[in-house]
Predict the structure.
Amino acid sequence: MPRVNRDLQRRMAARRERRRAPTERRYQFGPSPQPLDTHDELLDAAELDAEATGGAPAAGLARPGRRGEVAVVAHRPFSTYAADYAYVLQDLRRVGIVFGLLLAALVILYFILPH
């Protein structure tokens, strides 16, 4: 069975691509199919989020973007996230304890086992 020349196949595929009709497009670029949220809906969502987390609502909401861009909500201060991420400090403490125990075990085994 003859060997397949992959380089030749790539060149032929590239030649076919160059011969395509200029009006034929592979990708269609345009506005997103979903409508953007209005500024009032974003404010309402931010207030509901603030009430759910127990924090203050976000201070400066950006206006919704143009041409299919997604609207961005301004950053909240760390104090509003403190309740949401209280578990992180406990998890880091547990990881530190496990790391310390493993390191201590390695040091002890180094001195106990013969060289």
Summary: The chain has four helices and no strands. Residues 86-112 form the longest helix (27 residues). The two ends are 60 Å apart (CA to CA).
